[in-house]
Design goal:
This protein is 37% helix and 16% strand. The protein has 398 residues and is an alpha/beta fold.
């Protein structure tokens, strides 16, 4: 039987009154407990953020300071006066001026190799002018950008790559662009003057990127940072990047085949290579990768061997931003792992990357190269011999 309209209105008014009374009782109870010192929300007497403990190693201390600067949740009431003195930045106002405070902050600085000293004194500088740029190299919005680390004298390696796995254009119905990343070679490193030849090469092939910094082993990290900056400005539309040395062989066809099957979601965090985990710095001064305790302490994050790795353009843009918050480290592949960790990511291991080479008995086995993505290291002559094994359909590897 339908309820009369007058009764319905009366019921609604009664319900509203009961709700109003309940709200008043709740407020009254809360106020009375606050006045009586009973149960209430307690504000912590200690700050959630505590002052960092000073590391004994120079790089770690500098990174602690950088982390503080970029920390978005540090107590806004904390003034710089309250900071420990060692976190105050006493370096030069211009980051590209030599940091003369460094020798006094590293106990064994004077016993380190000269190249290491140079890196430490100039590690804050990230702004180096370009000598040669190719701003139109990505005009066709490449599916795959091949970014190859090279040195000025390595003309034969670059030419072999252009004729084989690094040939720009269309491959497997996908557009491919290639750039070679170079600094400059100095007379003190016992290199002849090759600028004229390099200028001719750049004009002929339009694939050379060169910055005005000294191209040394410890400056490979700088090359990484400068490339990411260049990419963000001149090639942000490239979907994927293969970053590698100029002495690796890459199966570009297989790379494209792998990437063609990736979803857009998978591509966001895509980074694969020959991953090294649970590694730490070498302490033997005779080794190429020597890092003293006075400079760095702790374990390395998981990282992909610098001989070559594959990642998405979307991730490259995020790595560019993350690199601004990670202090330069003298080993470039470890540094890239640090930037990935800053993003909360880690590289994914793929068995197709062989940055430590393959067994000697397989070096001349054509079908091996069909199944792999990248192999280190190969001479220009070997690249020219291997490439037909990859692209010619006559080879039966069933």
């Amino acid at each position: 039987m339908p309820v009369p309209r007058r009764k319905t209105k009366a019921l609604c008014m009664m319900l509203s009154f009961n709700i109003f009374v309940c709200v008043l009782v709740g407020i009254s109870w809360t106020l009375s407990h606050d006045r009586s010192g009973g149960d209430k929300v307690r504000i912590p007497s200690q700050r959630f953020w505590s002052k960092p403990v000073q590391s004994k190693s120079f790089w770690n201390r500098e990174q602690q300071r950088l982390d503080f600067i970029h920390n978005p949740i540090v107590n806004p009431g904390l003034s710089l006066v309250e900071l420990p003195h060692w976190m105050n930045d006493s370096g030069p106002a211009d980051p590209c001026q030599p940091d003369h405070r460094v020798p006094a902050q590293i106990a064994d600085y004077n016993s380190l190799p000269r190249r290491f000293q140079d890196f430490l004194v100039h590690m804050r500088c990230r702004l180096y002018p370009m000598r040669i740029n190719q701003p139109g190299v990505c005009a066709e919005q490449p599916f795959l950008l091949l970014a190859v680390k090279s040195l000025m004298p390595h003309f034969d390696r670059r030419q072999a790559i252009r004729q084989t796995w690094g040939r720009a254009g269309v491959l497997a119905n996908r557009s491919v662009a290639t750039v070679f990343l170079l600094g400059h070679t100095a007379a003190e490193d016992h290199f002849p003057d090759l600028l004229g030849m390099l200028g001719h090469e750049a004009a002929l092939h339009k694939d050379i990127l060169q910055w005005d910094y000294r191209d040394t082993f410890f400056n490979l990290t700088l090359k990484e940072v400068l490339f990411l900056d260049w990419f963000s400005k001149h090639c942000p539309q490239a979907q994927y990047i293969l970053k590698g040395d100029d002495d690796v062989f890459v199966n570009t066809l297989r790379i494209i085949g792998l990437l063609d099957g990736l979803s857009e979601l998978r591509a966001q965090d895509f980074f694969i290579g020959d991953v090294i985990s649970n590694a730490g710095p070498h302490r033997d001064p005779k080794l190429k990768y020597f890092i003293p305790e006075s400079v760095f302490e702790g374990q390395y994050p998981a990282y992909a061997g610098g001989g070559g790795y594959l990642y998405s353009g979307a991730l490259a843009l995020r790595l560019h931003n993350a690199s601004q918050e990670v202090l330069m480290f003298p080993i470039d592949d470890v540094y890239t792992g640090m930037c990935l960790r800053k993003l909360g990511l880690a590289p994914e291991k793929h068995s197709g990357f062989r940055t430590f080479g393959i067994e000697e008995k397989y070096r001349d086995a054509p079908c091996i190269y069909r199944s792999l993505l990248l192999v280190h290291s190969r001479t220009p002559q070997e690249m020219l011999r291997i490439w037909p094994w990859v692209v010619l359909p006559e080879l039966d590897c069933q």
